Amino acid sequence: MSSPQAEALRKAIENLINAKLRDLVRPGGVDRLVAHRVTGVAAYEIRDAEKRLDQALAEIVPADEAETAGSTGKQRFDF
Fold first, then answer.
1. Taking the model in full, what pTM does it have?
2. What does each C-alpha distance from 42 to 6, 50, 65 come to in angstroms?
3. How many C-beta neighbours within 10 Å does residue 56 have?
4. Measured distance CA(66)–CA(56) in Å, rounded
5. Residue 51 and residue 63: Cα distance in Å, rounded?
6. Nearest residue to 57 (alpha-carbon basis) of 79, 38, 37, 36
7. pLDDT of 35-62, one tens digit each?
8. 30 vs 5, 45, 50, CA distance in Å?
């Protein structure tokens, strides 16, 4: 993994963590985060941060590996 890819991945992870922490401190934040874990429904900021993380991972993982990651159309990365 090259340095720019590592930096993009680090920023995407940090962005997702920050989005979840910002949501957590708002009223009802714990309930929303639990609901997100159970149902997958999240605030726009969290969904956007997840999308950016998925994009950063997609740039790192070769295309043929991403195609075989899952048949649901959504990429799965098992680390």
1. 0.67
2. 26, 10, 28
3. 20
4. 12
5. 17
6. 79
7. 888 888 888 899 999 999 999 999 888 7
8. 32, 16, 18
In this structure, what token pair is assigned to residue 25? 């401190």
Give the burial class of 43: count Cβ atoms within 10 A of its Cβ; 0-12 exposed, 13-18 middle, 19 or more buried: middle
Cβ(34)–Cβ(57) under 8 Å?
Answer: no
Residue-wise DSSP of 6-58: HHHHHHHHHHHHHHHHHHHTSTTHHHHHHHHHHH----HHHHHHHHHHHHHHH
3-class secondary structure, 73: coil
Quote the pLDDT of residue 65. 61
